C-alpha cells in the first residue's frame, strides 16, 4: 500500500529525483539489461534511437526534426515508459508539487500547517505527458500563466498577491514530459518566453517576483524550416535546446511493411475473410517509395508513413466491399483492387506544378504503375524495350496470345470464379509463372498473373484501357489501330 502522508513518505526513505535523472536512470537500467527502449518504433534502431538515448543520458531537452509521418510524436510518447511508475505529489497541488521539495505557495503553506500529516497522492507515469500543438494563436498566458481577475475577485485578493496567478500548461507540467509540436509555428515572441525556462528552469508571470524552478523534460518537434515557410525556430531558442535529432522514413520495404502491418486497423472478420498476397504488400509499400522520388510530388513536404497505412485500409475495404456485393465469404486481394487506394494517395501528397497539371488522381495512377515497373524485374526476366522482329523471349507466347485473341475485360467486381476463369484462359501466364515463380504460394497465383499483365502495360507491350466497371487488356497494335 502506498504512503498517504508526508510522514509515511519520509519514513519509507523515499528520495526526490529530477525528471531528467529519472529518465536517465531508467534508460541505464534498460540498456544494461539489453531491454529494447522504444518498442513499436521500427527502422530507427541504428540511427535515431541511439541519438535519442545519448540525449537522454546527457539530460538534454530535445528537438526532433523531420518531415511529416516520421514517428516524432510517437517517440516522444514512448519516453513515458522511461519514467518511474508512480511519483508522490502534494494532494490538491496544481503543479504536481514534490512533497519533499514544494514549489507553489499552496504546497508550502499546507506542509507548514500540517507537517507530517500533509496528504499526498501518487501520480502514474501515463498522467505525466503534456502535449501542445504550436499554433499562431498560442499565447504566453496559455503556456506560462497569467493573473486571473475572477480568482482575485472571488478570493478578495490584491493583484500583487501571487495566489491570483493562473498557471499555464508548462508549470502544470512540472515533473512531467512536455511536448510542443510544430515549434516553428509558435510566434517568435512566444518562443522568446521559453528562453528562461530552458536555460534557468524557472518562469516569470506578469512581472511577479516569483522564481518557480519547474522540473520539465521538454521535447520539441518540427518540420525542416525550408518546408514549413510559416516560421522558424529563433536562433537563441535553438541554442538552448540540448540535442537536435533528425528523423527519417523507413529505408527498406521490410521495415515499411512491419510499420503498416502494426498500425493498420482491421476487424477480425476482415482479417479472416481477405487474403493478402505477399506481392500485394510489397507493391503497396513500393507505391509510397515511388511517391517520395516522384517528379510530380514536392519532396520537401515528404510523403507520410500514414499514407501506406490508409492505403492498406482502403485496399482491404475495396476487397471487403467487392466480396459483400458478390456474396463471396472468402476472397483474395486483386491488383485491380489497388484502384481503391487512390483516394488515400491523393489526400496525402503535395503536388508540384507538373503534378497539378496532370491532376492528383492521374498522378496516383502513375505511382501505382511506377511501383509495378520497379518490382517486376525482381520476379520475372527483364523486358527489353528494343528487340529484333523474330527474336523470341520469355514473353513472346503471351504477346502472341493477345495478338491472336481479342483481349478481355477484367471487371472490378467480378465474382472470384469469373475473375479466375478469365485469367486461366490466358495459358501463357501459367507457363511463365511455372518457369519463373515455381515456389509461389497457390493463393498468390492469380495476383501474380494480373501483376504480369499490368507490367506488360507499363513496359508498353500491351494496352490497358479503363472502362466503366473495370479494365480492358488488349494487344498494343490493335489498340493503336483503333485510335486511327
UniProtKB/TrEMBL annotation:
<protein>
    <submittedName>
        <fullName>Magnesium chelatase subunit I</fullName>
    </submittedName>
</protein>
<dbReference type="InterPro" id="IPR002078">
    <property type="entry name" value="Sigma_54_int"/>
</dbReference>
<dbReference type="GO" id="GO:0005524">
    <property type="term" value="F:ATP binding"/>
</dbReference>
<dbReference type="GO" id="GO:0006355">
    <property type="term" value="P:regulation of DNA-templated transcription"/>
</dbReference>
<feature type="domain" description="Sigma-54 factor interaction">
    <location>
        <begin position="166"/>
        <end position="224"/>
    </location>
</feature>
<dbReference type="GO" id="GO:0004672">
    <property type="term" value="F:protein kinase activity"/>
</dbReference>
<dbReference type="Pfam" id="PF00158">
    <property type="entry name" value="Sigma54_activat"/>
</dbReference>
<dbReference type="InterPro" id="IPR027417">
    <property type="entry name" value="P-loop_NTPase"/>
</dbReference>
Amino acid at each position: 500500500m502506498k504512503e498517504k502522508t508526508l510522514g509515511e513518505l519520509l519514513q519509507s526513505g523515499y528520495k526526490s529525483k529530477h525528471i531528467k535523472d529519472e529518465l536517465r536512470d531508467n534508460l541505464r537500467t534498460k540498456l544494461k539489461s539489453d531491454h529494447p527502449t522504444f518498442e513499436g518504433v521500427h527502422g530507427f534502431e541504428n540511427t535515431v534511437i541511439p541519438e535519442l538515448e545519448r540525449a537522454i543520458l546527457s539530460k538534454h531537452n530535445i528537438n526532433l526534426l523531420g518531415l511529416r509521418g516520421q514517428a516524432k510524436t510517437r517517440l516522444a510518447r514512448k519516453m513515458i515508459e522511461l519514467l518511474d511508475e508512480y511519483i508522490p505529489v502534494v494532494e490538491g497541488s496544481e503543479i504536481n508539487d514534490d512533497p519533499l521539495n514544494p514549489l507553489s505557495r499552496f504546497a508550502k503553506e499546507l506542509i507548514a500547517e500540517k507537517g507530517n500529516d500533509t496528504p499526498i497522492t501518487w501520480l502514474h507515469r501515463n498522467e505525466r505527458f503534456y502535449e501542445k500543438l504550436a499554433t499562431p494563436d498560442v499565447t504566453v498566458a496559455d503556456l506560462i500563466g497569467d493573473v486571473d481577475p475572477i480568482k482575485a475577485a472571488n478570493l478578495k485578493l490584491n493583484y500583487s498577491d501571487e495566489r491570483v496567478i493562473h498557471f499555464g500548461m508548462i508549470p502544470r507540467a512540472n515533473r512531467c514530459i512536455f511536448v510542443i509540436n510544430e515549434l516553428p509555428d509558435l510566434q517568435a515572441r512566444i518562443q522568446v518566453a521559453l528562453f528562461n525556462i530552458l536555460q534557468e528552469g524557472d518562469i516569470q508571470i506578469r512581472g511577479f517576483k516569483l522564481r518557480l524552478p519547474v522540473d520539465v523534460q521538454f521535447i520539441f518537434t518540427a518540420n525542416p524550416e525550408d518546408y514549413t515557410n510559416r516560421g522558424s525556430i529563433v536562433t537563441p531558442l535553438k541554442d538552448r535546446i540540448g540535442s537536435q535529432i533528425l528523423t527519417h522514413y523507413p529505408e527498406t520495404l521490410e521495415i515499411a511493411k512491419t510499420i503498416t502491418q502494426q498500425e493498420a486497423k482491421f476487424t477480425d472478420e476482415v482479417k479472416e475473410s481477405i487474403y493478402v498476397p505477399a506481392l500485394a504488400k510489397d507493391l503497396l509499400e513500393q507505391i509510397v517509395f515511388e511517391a517520395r522520388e516522384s517528379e510530380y510530388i514536392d519532396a520537401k513536404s515528404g510523403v507520410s508513413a500514414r499514407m501506406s497505412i490508409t492505403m492498406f485500409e482502403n485496399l482491404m475495404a475495396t476487397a471487403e466491399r467487392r466480396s459483400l456485393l458478390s456474396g463471396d465469404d472468402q476472397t483474395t486481394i486483386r491488383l485491380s483492387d489497388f484502384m481503391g487506394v487512390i483516394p488515400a494517395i491523393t489526400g496525402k501528397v503535395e503536388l508540384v506544378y507538373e503534378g497539378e497539371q496532370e491532376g492528383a488522381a492521374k498522378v496516383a495512377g502513375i505511382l501505382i504503375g511506377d511501383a509495378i515497373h520497379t518490382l517486376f524485374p525482381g520476379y520475372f526476366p527483364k523486358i527489353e524495350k528494343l528487340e529484333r522482329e523474330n527474336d523470341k523471349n520469355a514473353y513472346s507466347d503471351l504477346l502472341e496470345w493477345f495478338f491472336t485473341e481479342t483481349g478481355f475485360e477484367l471487371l472490378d467486381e467480378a465474382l472470384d470464379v469469373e475473375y479466375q476463369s478469365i485469367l486461366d484462359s490466358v495459358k501463357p501466364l501459367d507457363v511463365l509463372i511455372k518457369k519463373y515463380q515455381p515456389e509461389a504460394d497457390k493463393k498468390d497465383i492469380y495476383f501474380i498473373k494480373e501483376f504480369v499483365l499490368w507490367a506488360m502495360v507499363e513496359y508498353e507491350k500491351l494496352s490497358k484501357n479503363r472502362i466503366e466497371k473495370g479494365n480492358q487488356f488488349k494487344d498494343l497494335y490493335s489498340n493503336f489501330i483503333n485510335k486511327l
